[in-house]
TrEMBL record:
Keywords: Membrane, Transmembrane, Transmembrane helix. Pfam families: TctB. It comes from Psychrobacillus faecigallinarum. The keyword Transferase does not apply. Residues 9-144 form the DUF1468 domain. The chain crosses the membrane at residues 40-58, 78-111, 117-136. It comes from the Bacteria. InterPro entries: DUF1468. This is Tripartite tricarboxylate transporter TctB family protein.
Length: 151
């Protein structure tokens, strides 16, 4: 664990969170009078990022150097998740939100902790379908739909 790196990253995340909020203030509000406009989600993400960066900064300031241990960097896991994130972005429009998110989460969960396929499938499927339902059906937003072969 590198405390100075963690402190610098927390400051970077703080600046990114502020940029999210500043950028979301420039997004026009919805014209339909809905309470949830397109600016709500980026603003919430910015606030969460700022809060988490404060937590990281204060944890590294209060952390004693005696408890620091060497962390093994796992390049294989990183590359698998990185490549799957790139494939997620490239296939999102073609396969739709639910399928690509489900596949990305299954890969991510299995890379982090092998086994437990039933739990992985249930959580990934529930998250993908749940977010799609809430965002598209309740909030009336738009996400890439299922491919036309499923209609």
């Amino acid at each position: 664990m590198n405390l100075s790196f963690d402190r610098m990253i927390s400051i970077l995340f703080l600046l990114i969170g502020v940029a999210f909020i500043a950028g979301s203030l420039k997004i026009p509000e919805t014209a339909y009078g809905s309470n949830v406009g397109p600016d709500v989600f980026p603003t919430a993400l910015g606030v969460i990022l700022i809060l988490l960066s404060f937590r990281l900064f204060f944890e590294t300031c209060n952390h004693s150097s005696e408890k620091i241990q060497k962390v093994k960097i796992e390049y294989k896991r990183f590359l698998i998740i990185f490549v799957s994130a790139i494939l997620y972005v490239l296939l999102l429009e073609k396969l739709g939100y639910v399928i690509t998110t489900f596949l990305f989460l299954v890969i991510g969960f299995q890379v982090m902790e092998k086994g437990g396929w039933l739990k992985t499938i249930l959580i990934a499927g529930g998250f993908s379908l749940g977010i799609y339902f809430v965002f598209v059906k309740i909030l009336e937003g738009s996400l890439p739909e299922f491919p036309t072969i499923f209609y």
